[in-house]
Amino acid sequence: MERRSRVKNKPSDKQNKDKKRRNKGKIALISLVVLILVGVGGYVFRKPLAVMAFDMFLSGQVEKKLDKSYAPLEGEVAKPVAVVKEEQLNPFSILLLGIDQRDNEPARSDTMIYSIVRPKDSKVLLISIPRDTYTEIVGKDKQDKINHAYAFGGEKMAKDTVRNFIGYDLDYYAAINFEGLREVVDALGGIELPITKDIVNKEKDHEKFTIKAGKPLYDGQEALNYVRYREDSGVNRTIRHQIFLNAMVDRMLKLDQVMKIPDLMDMLGENFKTDMTPSSIIALAKQILLGDRPEISGFTIVGEGKRMNGVYYDIANEEDVAFAKEMIENWSNPDTKPEELLKPESRPQE
């Protein structure tokens, strides 16, 4: 009887096939759920994961490479980026210097930007000072073009001169030689630039080049030519430098570029110098990875062209300088709420 019962209860081939189909269905369903969870989790936690990956695999390498770029200024004490709360940093100011040095020519600071960085809010203010702006060169006891400060006394004199011109202190400086950016842009696969009309450098004494309009990405040499182009106006050139910086930020903050950071630092090599300590830069990098994409606001202090003793200068517009100071005061205050930040477009129009 028992044998018959066992034989009778033995699953048929059809039943076995049905059971396998059900098991496959469950596995498929479980796999789908896992994929959804991984997908959603990857989206929700991608920033913390990026920071964790940066901490585990990259921060040590990057800090060692940044040691080579760390160049504190004589007579100034290096200060860390102040931590307010965990993963929240105070606003700080930094002078961005774009250096154009070719072959054996003397170095010139083609770009001078007084910047306020608000890491907690993921916001950056860029106040550009045109290179021909007429001002006192601190340490030389003379009036001259502001970009000559770097030629006379390097980062120290440039920083002191901008402090004096703008009327506010500067926490840090960062100087980047444009030549070092060519390889970086190429390593990033190019950058997006809003070029709607061919840019042609053609004047007699200028380097000849053409940048074609409408390309989806521009390589390192094209990007370098873009920031060097000088055949329209100093103000437009300054605006192009802001656009270039914005484009670099866009490209660098893509998640798939994080692992390239050590190689990019190698490419910059001696072309990058700053008095911000490596540990401060690491802390700032992690904050940027955790935050939203930085929103960059740009303002240019416009000047009126004037020739003095046969030399062309920009005489800075006093209203522009006053508004720049107002923005610096507003952005530097950690108690200023994001919605209360002054923007260039908020300036009353005359």
UniProtKB/TrEMBL annotation:
Q: Which Pfam family, just one, is annotated for this protein?
A: LytR_cpsA_psr
Give residue spans, biased composition: Basic and acidic residues: 1-16
- Keyword Transmembrane helix attributed: yes
- What keywords sit in the KW lines? Membrane, Transmembrane, Transmembrane helix
**Membrane-traversing stretches:** 27-45
Give start and end of each Cell envelope-related transcriptional attenuator domain.
108-253
Superkingdom, taxonomy of origin: Bacteria
Q: Which residues form a coiled coil?
A: none
Question: What are the boundaries of the region Disordered?
Answer: 1-21
Tagged with keyword Membrane: yes
- Family label: Belongs to the LytR/CpsA/Psr (LCP) family.
What is the protein's given name? Transcriptional regulator LytR
